[in-house]
Design brief:
With about 375 residues, the protein is mainly β. It has helices spanning about 1-15, 45-50, 80-85, 100-105, 140-150, 210, 360-365, and strands at about 20-25, 65, 70-75, 110-125, 125-140, 160-180, 185-205, 220, 230-245, 250-260, 265-270, 275-280, 285-295, 300-305, 315-325, 330-335, 340-345, 350-355. The strands form two sheets. Strands 1-3-4-5-6-7-9-10-13-14-15-16-17-18 form a 14-stranded antiparallel barrel, surrounded by four helices. A two-stranded antiparallel ribbon has the order 11-12. The longest helix has 14 residues, at about 1-15. About 45% of the residues are buried.
Length: about 375
């Protein structure tokens, strides 16, 4: 175990060099370190079941509790800078008084920072999970970027602007899965997950005048004078897994995420004051396919095609593998076609993963 800990710590030291542009996941399932692939693989019942509720039908009926998940992502900003940019939650995570400073210090490129948490429990084919995530994006226009890149000296050029968008959500999920015997060589597990969701949206901007005079950022027109807009909804996910065994061999999976779409949408004005609007829809229907293989001893591999028809603008190929080095210790690696490589370790029931800037559900929703 001491050797396992040394390997895990070495991975953290090496990977921390990318902390200003990375996703960290603490306590989630193994798929986070496997390029987020694994919608067909059983094992971590609660985490995997949230991705594909058919996994619930493959799990033993005993009680399980998920180690709480904590995740955060950084793009164009470091951990030490978060205190300078994060605002109160009831203001959408955007501090109006800091927008001018953000524009001066980070206005040379787009920035994003986000955080999330989750936990759950499972018993007898039934699962309950709680998850919440939030993302804030800062989008400077070309005029502001050029000024900051040249030292941000003198008067702020006319036309400079930084738009800051905040998007958050939490959901409570109720899942159930059951395995059915079939006449062929493979049995089929079917699962459903119902979810009650609430989404939040905010948009402020800082123009040349507010940046020059250190004034508070201005609420965008769609906010109607409110710091935060919120919507509630109900959704339903459907999943399938076909396999000849519950614990080893080949597994084939498919999901329809948001078969019933939660109607939590927001009409957003475009960045830089561009005329027109865009629809921010955190929950959109996607069809996803996956295949996995669990070796009898110590090796797992998985590959997924996510958002096959690009309905949510998130079509992506994911692949990954896990090597069980010793009892209670696993190394993981993977690749996401949109974000690059991921790495992870498992120590007993505790998992840690580091990856590139995976857009995720909120990131795809906040695209302009």
């Amino acid at each position: 175990m001491q050797q396992s800990l040394r390997i895990a710590l070495s991975l953290l030291v090496v990977s921390s060099a990318g902390i200003a542009s990375a996703d960290w996941v603490i306590g989630s399932g193994p798929n986070a370190g496997m390029g987020r692939a694994g919608l067909a693989l059983p094992g971590d019942t609660i985490n995997q079941g949230r991705i594909n509720p058919a996994i619930y039908g493959l799990a033993p009926s005993g009680f399980r509790f998920q180690f709480p998940r904590f995740s955060f992502r950084l793009d164009g900003i470091g951990l030490g800078d978060l205190n300078d940019v994060i605002g109160e939650a009831n203001n959408g995570g955007i501090d109006a008084s800091k927008l001018s400073d953000i524009a001066r210090e980070f206005g040379d490129e787009n920035i994003q920072f986000g955080a999330g948490a989750g936990l759950g429990l499972f018993f007898g084919g039934l699962a309950i999970d709680f998850n919440g995530d939030a993302l804030v994006a800062g989008l400077p226009n070309a005029t502001l970027q050029n000024w900051v890149n040249t030292g941000a000296a003198g008067n702020v050029p006319i036309g400079s602007r930084l738009d800051a968008y905040g998007l958050g959500q939490y959901e409570i999920g109720f899942g159930y899965g059951k395995r059915f015997n079939t006449a062929g060589s493979a049995d089929v597990s079917v699962g459903v997950r119902a979810k009650i969701v609430r989404s939040y949206y905010s948009h402020r901007f800082a123009d040349a005048n507010s940046i020059q005079n250190n004034l508070d950022g201005t609420l965008a027109p769609e906010m109607g004078g409110n710091d935060v807009l919120d919507e509630s909804g109900f959704g339903l996910d459907l999943g399938f897994v076909a396999s000849s065994s519950k614990t080893q061999g080949l597994f084939f999976g498919a999901t329809i995420e948001n078969l019933l779409e939660p109607k939590t949408t927001f009409q957003s004005t475009l960045p830089n004051g561009i005329p027109g609007t865009d629809t921010i829809q955190p929950y959109q229907r996607t069809v996803n396919l996956g295949v996995g293989y669990l070796a009898p001893k110590n090796f797992h591999v998985a590959a997924d095609l996510v958002d096959v028809f690009n309905g949510a603008g998130g079509k992506e190929f994911r692949a990954g593998a896990q090597w069980n080095v010793s009892k209670g210790f696993a190394l993981r690696g993977g690749y996401e076609s949109r974000a690059g490589f991921t790495f992870g370790v498992g120590l007993g029931g505790f998992n840690l993963a580091l990856g590139g800037n995976s857009a995720g559900q909120l990131g795809y929703a906040l695209r302009f």
